Every structure is written in structure tokens, then in C-alpha cells.
Amino acid sequence: MKSSKQNKTVDIDFRSPEYYFNRELSWMKFDERVLSEARDKNLPLFERIKMLGITASNLDEFFMVRVASLKDMVHAGYKRKDIAGMTPKEQLSELSKVTHDFAALQYSTWGRSLLPLLKENGIRIISHHEELTKAEGAYLDRYFEEEIYPVLTPMAVDSSRPFPLVRNKTLNIGAIMTPLKSTNLLTKGQEKEGGKKGNKEAKRDFALVQVPDVLPRIVSIPPEVSGNAEERAFILLEEIIERNISRLFLNYRIECAHPFRIMRNADLTIDEDEAEDLLKEIEKQVRRRQWGEVIRLEVEEGIAPALLKILVEELNVEEQDIYRINGPLDLAFLTRVASLSGYEEFKIPSWTPQFPKYMNRDEDIFTQIRKGDILLQHPYESFEPVVDFISSAARDKDTLAIKMTLYRVSGNSPIIAALAHAAENGKQVMVLVELKARFDEEHNINWARTLEKAGCHVIYGLVGLKTHSKIALVVRREEEGIRRYVHLGTGNYNDTTARFYTDMGLLTCSERIGEDATAVFNMLSGYSEPLSWNKLSMAPLWLKDRFLYLINREAEHAKAGREARIIGKMNSLCDPDIIEALYKASAAGVKIELIIRGICSLKVGIPGVSENISVISIVGFFLEHSRIFYFQNGGNEEYYMGSADWMPRNLDRRVEIVFPVEREELKADLKHFLSLELSDTIKAHVLRSDGNYEKPDRRGRRAINSQKELCREARDTARKRQETMKGRVFVPETKPADETPDTE
To answer: How many other CB atoms sit within 10 Å of the CB of residue 669?
Structure first.
């Protein structure tokens, strides 16, 4: 006989829209959390400025991809509701309100808080060229003549010169002007045209000039010019151009000039089944981004109505897509301000990743892996062993083959160089370069061609799927026979982002994982699909079912009266099947703790549904990026890591890999890592039942910044090893060292 609680649970519709947050609105909540860091007066000034710049970059991508996708749905007449019960049109309407309010808060933070603080501390950012002193104006006029003018291309619009292409994300200055009486052939021709039509009014023309991104956006004014040795003055490039715009249009009187910026639909539409050459098709589609629909127009607050009217008509922009900005357009430039040399007192000290505690610099990497699985925690620990894994294999005479997947790599990637070197050394090298990695398409096309020229076998992914998995396989001939070494990770093979993305990696020569790794690459390069897997779980065919099984198993433990617990750390959660399973597990009594940096469509605190679920988001010095999953399993604890978030795109439309961590020491490390993050009282934001996030109540609790603690622990471990080698007694620090990020 079922209990009344069980009967009540059966009656609950866990798919009811009232139990879900809209994905896009949840993403905006994430950018609000980043903005809250910019508004946090406890942070160093330049860290706050950097965070504000990040919100601008985040918002750009959100418009180009997510808002663009919704607009495409509306144009196509798509009216199906999402899991939160909203149609695409309803989502756009709500997002318009939210993003306008968000932009207002961004600029309030800049103009009312950060800009005055900079001035107080001897850094003057000149907002308008009208504020320049006579000496500063003369200096910048010369700078314009010598450095800027030769690069500019003024573009007038008339019957013979149509409205020019305004490129995505570029900053431009639009102007309305009237011709002066002149012997100039062009203006004489215009006067004739006007005379033929009997137009007695002065002709008004439109023109624009693109602010070149090949020049520095921030221009420094020397102290001897500004007349204040204790102050550094800066002005934005567009202000210098606007001040001198009359030099670009001689024989015209400039009626008004204002900067503007547009955002275009940048979501690629690729028919992979019809594409004869995927590489060439993606190249073609990337070029088409410049002609995408305009989905946002940013203009200076106070723009002349006549100029705005021209922009709206020519760019075909709706009123709700116009953003009137009280400040400089495109605050992404603030990340450059935050990196200005000097001013160390306003910055969080940089962090130097430590050498991993399970590794030895003086020992061959393959020998070390044979001794036991190795856990890598980036950026607390260095990414160097991952690079060494590939470069050592490239040089090693016993290496027969190297195979790996590449999603996003750095601009001067040592891994690409090692793979090319391996092919030139006669190794069998197979690389899957994912050409569809959004906004890295051109980058990856160039790397694919570089690898092909070196003799690598390069494939571009699977039709209809993105390959997002992070896996590298090295095959060696050893005395005992063929042995396979594998690296599996939660983040990209990118030595640059590995310094500020938190990710996990595993180095192993487990025979069963090696067999699975071979099956993965055979499946990617051919048509060989294994009948079963030993250890790895892959999307899109098996991974979701595996996760659902693990969640449901935990629910069964709870129903049987055993302790049941799930901890999930990921970037985003919006898969309805996973959320429904979590709701059912919560209703059964499973304690569920989620660490979700970004999107979360799950609601907490719903009676009978999610009372046992808690969600935090950590926004700190590093970008939280790792995916870790824990299941208590009746005391037989299981830990998994991988490349997949709990999102439909990851589980249904991408090639992803999740792998178990089985060495006891490594499981203990993951347990400590998750416990520390769940205890964070400084950088954690707690999801409330109304969908808002708040900092945790610190009353009676120790102040814990999990990222700072992990830096300290990594440094202490490295120093302990160093002191032990010198025969000294190691004494751990009780307070952070200077180079540890201190964000309190």
C-alpha cells in the first residue's frame, strides 16, 4: 500500500510550466550576477571595471545568438511554448524590458560609481571631447592628423552612393551635413540636381565613418599636455574622430554627429546534408554574418531625431530594439582599462598556476600515469602537463598514434605545434577540429588547414552534431605490448583560457578507458559504433539515459530509507527531462545540491517538488567551467566529470563524454572541492524561490572564498613538496600570500 505522500507525488505534474524558469531570462540573471560584482564596493576598483566590461561582452553574444534565434522563430511563425510556457514573441517582449533595464544599470554603475572613483584616484576618462582643455585639444588634433586620419574612410550617402554596409559590432559615427557654396565639383553637381527639382531648401546629406578597430580605442594624453603630473588622462577614439569629423567632409557644414553601433544576427544556418565541403560552407556562412538582420541599435542618448530616423529606416530597426545609451557605447573597452599597466593597488594580484600535486617534473609523464590516475585542477594547477602529454608523445620514439578532439584552442597553440610535429615525425595523427564552435569558426578553419599541411588526418566533426567532448589518446608500443594513454577533460585544449577557467582533467592508462577511447575515435572518423561501453558515457545516444538512471537510482535509495544525495556542478541546467527527474528525486527525499554558474531553469523551494533542492552560482576571479557529478549511491559513492552540461543541446545535439573518477585519493579531492564550493560565503549567489539570487547570510558563518582557498591549498602543496625536497619542515600558511587572488 502506498503512503499518502507517495500518492500525492504521483498526482504532481512535474512538467507544469509554473515549475520552470525561462532559459533566456535565467541567462540575464547570470549577467546580473556579474554586474553585481561590478557594483560590489568591497572589490578592488579595476576588478569592478573588468566585471562591467565582461557584462557588455556577455550581452553582445546573448543578442547575436539567443535574441537572434527568438527573432528567427517569430519570423517563421513559430508559436510553440517553451518549458516555462512562453512563446518566442512573449520571450522577446519580456527580454526587451529586462535588457533595457539592465543597460540602464550598467551605465549607472559606470557613470555614477566607477567613473568618479577613477577620477578620485588620479585617472581621468574624458567622456566628451567638449571637456578637453585647449592644450589637450591641440594635442589630439595633431594625433588625429598623424595617426587616425590616414586610416579612416568617410562614406557619404546620395543617389550615386547607397547606404553602406554597417558591420556587426563595429562602432560608427553618423552625421547629417549640408553643402557649402563651393567650386567643388561634387557640391556643384548636387546644386544642379537640387536646382532641377526646384528645391530651394538647403540639401541635407547623411554620412558615416567607421571607428577603426585596428587603432587603440583608449588614447592616453601625456601629463605634460594635460598639465597634471599626478593624473593620467584618457579619451576614447570616437571622441577624437567626432571632434575632427569636419576634416573628413570638406565643403560641408556638420549639422550633428553621433556614434552608433549595431548588433546583427550571427547565428549560422548550415545545411550540412547538402554541403559538399563543410569547411567551405562554413567559411561562406561566416562571411554572411555581416549581412545578418539588425537586432539591436545602440545610439548616444540625445541623438538628433533626424539622424536617428535615417538609421532606423535604413537599418530596419524596431523601436524596442533601440537602446539609448547615457555614456560611451560598447563598454567592453573597460577590460582594457582594467589591464592598464601600473595601478596594482586597484587590482587583484595575478595568480600563477602551481605544478600538480600528483606529478613530478623530473619523471617521464608516461611513467607517472602508469603509477596511477592523475587529477588535474586548472587553473589552481598548471595546464603544462596536458601540453607535455601531447608534446612528449610527438617526440617519443615509442608513440605510434595520437588522436584528439579540438573545440577551441589558443592563438599560438603549443598543442597544434606538437600535433604537426608528430605528423612530421611519422606518427599517425588524427584530429577532429570542430568547425562549428561558435565565433571560433575562422580560427578553427585555419588550424585545420595547418594540421592538414603537416600531414595530420583532419576531420571536421559529424553531420548535424557539434563535437564538444575533450579527449586525447596516445598509443605507444611498450615492452608489455600496446598501451593506451588517455586525457579526458571538462574544458578546452586551450593553454590561454586554462589560466582563468576552472576545469578538471584526468590522465589515465586504464585499459578499459583506453578501449573506450579507441571506440570513440573510430566512431568519429568512421561508422563503427560499439555495442557497449566500459567506462565512458557519450551523448547524444547514451549520456542522458545514464544521467536519468543515476538520478532515479538515488530516488530509489531514498524511498528505501537510505541516505541519498546528489551534487551537480555545471555551467547550465535547462533540460526538462533532467529537471523532472531531479524534482521527482527531491520529492522522494533526495538531498540535491547544485552549483550552476549560468542558466538554471529549475525552481527551488516548491512544496512537494523541490524542497530538497538548493542552487548556488559562484561568480569570482576565475570563470567557473568544470562539470562534476556526485551520487551517494547508498554509501558506494560515485564521481563523474565531463564536457556536458544538463542542457538539451549537450545531451541531444552534441558529442559529449562523461567519465568516472575511481581512484580513492582523487575522489577525496573532488569531495573536498565540492564541499568547499558549497560552503562559499563570499562569491556564492544563492537562488531563491522567486528566481532572484542573493549573497548567502554570513551571520555566524566563517567567511569562505572557495577560489581563494583553492589557490592557497595549491600553493601550500607545491611549497610542501619543495620544502620536503630541501629537507625542511613545511609550515602551511594561515593567511593568503600576495599572489593569491583576494576578492574579499
So the answer is: 18
SS (H, E, C) 277-327: CHHHHHHHHHHHHHHCCEEEEEEECCCCHHHHHHHHHHHCCCHHHEEEECC
pTM confidence score? 0.91
Q: Do 385 and 338 reside in the same domain of the chain?
A: no
Cβ-based neighbours of 200, under 8 Å, separated by 6 or more: none
Residue 631 sits in the same domain as residue 663: yes
- Which three three-digit cell numbers place residue 221? 594624453
Residue 358 lies in a domain: no
Residues 21 and 83 in one domain: yes
Give per-residue pLDDT as tens, 439-483: 667 777 888 888 999 999 999 878 788 899 999 999 999 999 999
Distance CA 229, CA 221 (A): 11
Dihedral, 566, 571, 573, 575 alpha carbons, nearest 10: -110
CATH number, domain containing residue 477: 3.30.870.10
Final residue of a structural domain among 248, 267, 286: 267
Question: In terms of domains, do 417 and 479 share one?
Answer: yes
My answer on whether 715 and 690 are in the same domain is no
| Grid cell listed for 32 | 546580473
Q: Are 684 and 617 in contact (CB under 8 A)?
A: yes
Does one domain contain both 392 and 482? yes
Best CA proximity match to 228, nearest among 327, 160, 126, 304: 126
Angle at 290 between CA 491 and CA 288, to 5 degrees: 80
Residues paired with residue 570 on neighbouring β-strands, in sequence order = 596
CATH number at residue 181: 3.30.1840.10
Domain hosting residue 53, numbered range: 1-126+327-347
Catalytic status, residue 468: yes
Q: Identify the CATH number of the domain in which residue 73 sits.
A: 1.20.58.310
Q: CA-based angle 318:324:327, to the nearest 5?
A: 155
730 and 591 in a common domain:
no
Residue pLDDT, tens place only, 676-724: 999 999 999 999 999 999 999 888 788 999 999 999 999 999 998 887 7
Residue 723 corresponds to which amino acid? E
Percent of the chain clearing pLDDT 70 (strictly above) = 89
Q: Which long-range contacts (CB under 8 A, 24 or more apart) does 533-536 make?
A: 535/510, 535/659, 535/660, 536/657, 536/658, 536/659
Query: How far is Cα 728 from Cα 559, in angstroms, rounded to an integer?
Result: 53
Q: Which of 317, 347, 377 lies at the terminal end of a domain, its last residue? A: 347
What are the residues whose beta carbons fall under 8 Å from the beta carbon of 215, sequence distance 6 or more?
A: 147, 148, 151, 237
Cβ atoms of residues 143 and 219 within 8 Å: yes
Residues 639 and 550 in one domain: yes
Tracing cell 577557467 back to the chain, one arrives at 501
Each residue of 262-298: pLDDT tens digit? Answer: 999 887 555 544 444 556 655 665 566 566 889 999 9
CB of 325 within 8 A of CB of 299? yes
Q: Which entry of 468, 557, 625, 685 is annotated as an active-site residue?
A: 468
Does residue 57 lie in a domain region?
yes
| Residue 318, domain member (yes or no) | no
* Mutual angle of helices 68-75 and 88-108, in 10-degree steps: 150
| Amino acid in position 240 | I
